[in-house]
UniProtKB/TrEMBL annotation:
Organism: Streptomyces canus
Protein name from the UniProt record: LuxR family transcriptional regulator
Transcription regulation listed as a keyword: yes
HTH luxR-type domain residues: 253-318
Gene Ontology BP annotations: regulation of DNA-templated transcription
InterPro entries membership: Sig_transdc_resp-reg_C-effctor, Tscrpt_reg_LuxR_C, WH-like_DNA-bd_sf
Keyword DNA-binding: yes
UniProt entry keywords in alphabetical sequence: DNA-binding, Transcription, Transcription regulation
Length: 333
């Protein structure tokens, strides 16, 4: 029977899935596990969806070498296949056949580190294997069936913390029609429950993504056409987890705000960079008078009383269509 400390720890782990910093939340989840189960060391690993390798999200008790061995070498053991097949996390103490204790990983990695028992759970989310959790103890019989069921009960929460693909909580404020994709070094990960971003089919958009990634900024909001329709596009940089360099792209269909025309949007974007009408005219192959007319139209449409107010509105509300070289001027830190 579970005691109140174990129930409290399991509840706390579930609540941690609401946190945006998955690294800090993962570390706290392992500390909560240490209150509920006997353990001397633990590690939470995420499966990098591009390389197929495991990366540590959080760990306690293991040396750096031991953590690396669990991330890199454990998946090459027969015991790993045993782990991913079972609903109930297997433990060394319940290994009646002795297959793990007789293997090289136990003899060369586990036993020399002083551990006599261990349990490993496979982390799955939306039908995908997203990582592993390892617990180790110096006691030879630390993980009985009850302990393993307790660990099994929190595996979904641990999977949410380990999953490098955005968690549902990160996207809960999006409109139902919004598409979302995670982009890493040109590769695209589909976000469960969301369509793939249409703009990603445009090579020019990838240049914009690279420019955003190079700035190290946190967020960029803009307007962009894709497949004959306009969209609000927001680029978010991941700042935690195993693929912290990833960019989450969110795309929502929209009409151009304030009835602006595409050319007026281009003029407004360049004005927001500080360009004069003469410089805008040269860049867009227009006459200065035409640019002046566009500025008059967009002032009237937005209700701004001055060029400065209009450009402030553009930056504040993301009424921008920047070229890659202009991204650094508009990125939010």
């Amino acid at each position: 029977m579970l005691h109140h400390r174990q129930i409290a720890a399991a509840t706390r782990i579930g609540m941690l899935t609401r946190e945006h910093d998955s690294v800090a939340a993962g570390a706290e989840a392992l500390r909560q596990l240490a209150r509920a189960l006997p353990l001397d060391a633990a590690t939470l690993l995420a499966l990098d969806p591009f390389t197929g390798t495991h990366v540590q999200v959080a760990g306690i008790g293991y040396t750096a070498t031991a953590s690396q061995d669990l991330a890199a070498e454990f998946v090459g053991t027969p015991w790993y296949e045993n782990v991913v097949r079972q609903e109930l996390p297997p433990s060394i103490s319940e290994d009646t056949a002795g297959s793990f204790r007789d293997g090289w990983f136990y003899a060369e990695r586990v036993r020399p580190a002083g551990f006599r028992d261990g349990v490993t759970g496979a982390l799955r989310r939306h039908g995908r294997l997203v990582g592993l959790v390892h617990l180790s103890a110096s006691d030879a019989h630390a993980y009985d069936t009850d302990a393993r069921w307790l660990l099994a009960s929190v595996l979904p929460a641990l999977a949410a913390l380990a999953d490098p693909v955005p968690r549902a909580g990160d996207l809960e404020d999006l409109a139902p029609e919004s598409a979302a994709s995670l982009v890493v070094d040109g590769g695209v990960i589909d976000v469960p429950g969301r369509e793939r971003v249409r703009a990603l089919r445009d090579p020019a958009f990838h240049e914009l993504l690279r420019a955003f990634a190079d700035t190290g900024g946190r967020r960029l909001r803009l307007l962009r056409p894709a497949e004959g329709a306009w969209h609000r596009v927001v680029l978010h940089r991941h700042r935690s987890g195993p693929i912290a360099h990833a960019v989450l792209v969110v795309e929502t269909p929209t009409e151009l705000p304030y009835g602006l025309s595409p050319r007026e949007l281009d003029v407004l974007t360049r004005a927001a960079t500080g360009q004069t009408n003469q410089a805008i005219a040269q860049a867009l192959y227009l006459s200065p008078r035409t640019v002046h007319t566009h500025m008059e139209h967009l002032l009237r449409k937005t209700g701004a009383v001055s060029r400065a107010e209009a450009t402030a509105l553009a930056v504040r509300d993301g009424l921008l269509r920047p070229a890659p070289e202009q991204v650094i001027r508009f990125v939010e830190r």
